[in-house]
Specification:
The protein has 99 residues and is an alpha/beta fold. Helix content is 36%, strand content 19%. This is Dihydroorotate dehydrogenase.
Length: 99
């Protein structure tokens, strides 16, 4: 895991540090507040996309989901809580180990 795009939430707070401690080298954050966010592309070097479901509108979530699908990037929908994010990271690790 190296690069992560987080969409949603105004501020990530200490989540950024915890994500880095979990093995992500680069974290790109888009708050999703501006209307033109739906026009933004997912950078090519991003490996995984997290969408903060409690801080994003439905249209942006739908657009990001389609863009991730088109670029064959895994997308995960999480709440803006470390326990929710950590659960997804553990599931990703289990999938990589073939469990």
């Amino acid at each position: 895991m190296s690069s992560l795009l987080v969409v949603g939430a105004d501020h990530l707070g200490n989540i950024t540090d915890k994500l880095k401690n979990s093995g992500f080298q680069e974290i790109i954050h888009l708050d999703g507040r501006k209307v033109n966010m739906v026009k933004r592309q997912i950078p090519e070097h991003v490996d995984i996309v997290f969408v903060m479901t409690d801080y994003i509108n439905h249209n942006l979530a739908k657009v990001i989901k389609q863009k991730a699908k088109d670029q064959h990037k895994p997308i995960y929908f999480v709440k803006r809580s470390w326990s929710s994010i950590q659960t997804v990271i553990q599931q990703m690790g289990d999938e990589l180990r073939g469990r």
